[in-house]
Amino acid sequence: MKIITGKVVSAKMHKTVVVEVLKQRLHPLYKKVMRSEKRYKAHFEGMELKEGDMVKIIQVRPISKDKHYKVVEVIKIKKL
């Protein structure tokens, strides 16, 4: 089971949030830090999440065609 930390980018769908995960790695030849981002759809029931909230997601069995993750914990809630 993979546990990933990321930022909520979209919370417009019913019981689904889109979480963006940033990864950094060093280029093997040029030694430059390269950033890549990937978006995961995660299942979430409960209080409302907003864009900018930090969450932990965990890999679970397929819930739908695109959803393979579930929100486990809300780390930080963005204040307005």
Q: How much helical structure, as a percent, in the residues?
A: under 10%
Distance between the termini: 33 Å
Instruction: Quote the beta fraction.
Output: over 45%
What class do helices, strands and sheet pairing give? mainly beta
Q: Reading side by side through the largest sheet, how are the strands ordered?
A: 1-2-3-5-4
Shape: globular
Number of domains: 1
CATH topology: OB fold (Dihydrolipoamide Acetyltransferase, E2P)
- What is the average per-residue confidence, as pLDDT, rounded to a whole number? 93
Largest sheet: 5 strands, mixed, barrel
Family: Belongs to the universal ribosomal protein uS17 family.
Function: One of the primary rRNA binding proteins, it binds specifically to the 5'-end of 16S ribosomal RNA.
Pfam family, one: Ribosomal_S17
Keywords: Ribonucleoprotein, Ribosomal protein, RNA-binding, rRNA-binding
